[in-house]
Amino acid sequence: MYWYYNLGDYSFIFYILAFGIMIWSLIVRARLNSLVKKYSNVPVASGKDANTCVHEMLAANEVYGVTVKATGGEMTDNYNPKEETINLSETTYGRNSITAVAVAAHECGHACQAHSSMALYKVRQAIAPVASITSKISVWIAIIGVFIMYASKSLEMNKMGYTISTIGIVLYSVVFIFYLVTLPIERDASRRGLKAMKEFGWVSDDQYKAARSVLWAAGDTYAVALASAALTLLRLLLMRGRRRR
Ligand SMILES: [Zn+2]
Questions:
Q1: Judging by beta carbons within 10 Å of its beta carbon (0-12, 13-18, 19+), is residue 222 exposed, middle or buried?
Q2: Measured between alpha carbons, how far is 208 from 222 in angstroms, rounded to an integer?
Q3: 11-62 pLDDT, tens per residue?
Q4: From ligand 1's centre to the CA of 188, what distance in Å?
């Protein structure tokens, strides 16, 4: 694999780390799926459905102008800050399971973040469009740069490759920063949702613990993404590192 080419002594460590992240990712996904499934059929003690809970939480946080909409698919729930809509998936919209209420409260947490002066949320919103473009091209730019460096026969060509690969790395850094700010934002949205679940008595004490495990497992997927982005960034830096002098 050309990807690991030229890493020299580091390549073995990267294989181990990449493999570790892959296993971790599988464990996180499996755990999340089983928790979501387990609590999708258990109605909350209050009997209130996800939509009712969202409206209650929005009103309590004095967030106005946000509408709740149904969206297709499963686990596709999201908050759209541009349209000011909380989009709830088929397994959440109008449902009163622990999973549905927990997921809806989490998305409502994002709406509250957007309507509060949370600096981190604003940073993410600002870099999200840039990160979505650079995530597709940055790694390739960095690799092409490294390829030019190693294929070069002159010092000028080598320098050009180094510069191109640096541009790729800088662009990938935006992706890394995006994941870096996303994790605390996701945890915060879950905390806000869980606080509401407890305060408004939507769930029993045991159900609260269940909801917390679902939301924390969902948040772990962002921790995996961050670790993976950190490894990619480090890998690109080391690939480019050995510049001919
Ligand atoms: Zn979220």
A1: middle
A2: 22
A3: 788 889 999 999 999 999 999 999 999 999 999 999 999 999 999 999 999 9
A4: 9
3-state helix, strand, coil in the chain (%, to 5): 75, 5, 20
Contact (Cβ atoms closer than 8 angstroms) between residue 3 and residue 18: no
Domain ranges (residues) in the chain: 2-241
Residue whose structure tokens are 């269940």: 210
d(CA 39, CA 76): 17
Residues whose beta carbons lie less than 5 angstroms from ion ligand 1: 186, 189
The pair of three-digit structure tokens given for residue 30, joined into one six-digit string:
């499996």
Q: Is pTM, for the whole model, over 0.70? A: yes
Which residues lie across from 78 on neighbouring strands? 87
